[in-house]
Amino acid sequence: MFLMLLGCLCCSAVFSVDISCRDERGDPVDWFLIYKLPKKKIGAVGTGLDYMYLDSKMESWMMSAFLVNMTQGAIGQTLSQLYSGAYKSNSSVYAIYNDAPPIIKYNVSYGHTKGVMLFDRCQGFWLSHTIPHFPSFPEKGYIYPESGKVNGQTALCVTYKYKQFFHIVNQLLYMSPRFFNCSVPQTFSPEFSLLSKLCDNMKVPFDTDRSVEELVSANGEQFTSFVKSACFVDDIYSGWVAQLLAVNLLVETWQITGHPLPSNCSLPWHTLNIRRVRALGPALFLSRHDHSKWCVSRDLETPLTCLGDLNRDKAQMWRGGGLTCTRHPLIHKAFRRLVDDFMGC
Ligand SMILES: *[C@@H]1O[C@H](CO)[C@@H](O)[C@H](O)[C@H]1NC(C)=O
Ligand SMILES: *[C@@H]1O[C@H](CO)[C@@H](O)[C@H](O)[C@H]1NC(C)=O
Ligand SMILES: *[C@@H]1O[C@H](CO)[C@@H](O)[C@H](O)[C@H]1NC(C)=O
Ligand SMILES: *[C@@H]1O[C@H](CO)[C@@H](O)[C@H](O)[C@H]1NC(C)=O
Ligand SMILES: *[C@@H]1O[C@H](CO)[C@@H](O)[C@H](O)[C@H]1NC(C)=O
Where does the signal sequence lie (predicted)? Predict the structure, then answer.
């Protein structure tokens, strides 16, 4: 009886204590998206901290009333669940990874992927993003890095029930993320022994070079995770996802690294690089000032939107990383209208 009661309390919607993505008011939300605008826009210089916000309760983007370095915004509210003490708790699990961790030196042998997850036996969130040196170590509290102001950045947070984290951790395995701070308490092993090993930077073998997992958010929204390991040496967009899903993709990634991959029409489904983005404001900016990584299907009849880890860049063909995709029509509409100009073949 007591256990049953506990079980009920755990996932009850009546109490807003469940670990989840949090919106701009600090209330639980199924998913949210953030598009932080670059400092340099066409004809204007911004703060580099303002951002567009969209969540599962909304129809389209709005400009946030907050700056991304403020704890009142959705990312700050979401991470406060970790920073306020959950990182010391033995009843929840967390893991933070970033190929460019705060303080620690960059090591190119890890996957080009960034994120943080926090969950208990009921549920939690997975926040994946493109921001180097972020987030900070939990004992430091919320810090948005100076370096993260210059370029545009994107973030996707989804609330998942406990069991979905097995699938998520399995996907992480292929990407070889650089975990720089984690806690997997005794009570969660052996179920999460894989995460423990990854957190301890142990080598865990896997038998394919790519993996696809269907994920279902706490409210039943479908997301699909596509991940590749360093062994799949190709561009994730043109060489895999566009062909697999049979869509023409418009791709926004940062291509300043000197080895950009041009728009590609060699295979049946084309991958075209976005050149200029039209954000709210209107604020126009060039892709070379945008460190975000996202793509949309060109055609409205097959709505597909993905947010991810990898740039269209030759060097990153040799890195682990992934994309989280959705067929949600409103998300597609929101991103498709941002495309101001792209490069044909
Ligand atoms: C956020 O950045 C702005 C501009 O640099 C600064 O004035 C403000 O104090 C910062 N806020 C926080 C909470 O760090
Ligand atoms: C979990 O933490 C609580 C409070 O810190 C402690 O009393 C308890 O013994 C711990 N449980 C385990 C299994 O470590
Ligand atoms: C980078 O990481 C790999 C794999 O963990 C390790 O073998 C290597 O020594 C690291 N290199 C540096 C420079 O730290
Ligand atoms: C990382 O995480 C552990 C466990 O939560 C914590 O004790 C440690 O102080 C953290 N910080 C660093 C810098 O590793
Ligand atoms: C187009 O993309 C495919 C898959 O990534 C690649 O194999 C091919 O070489 C590319 N074509 C050109 C002209 O770059």
Answer: 1-16
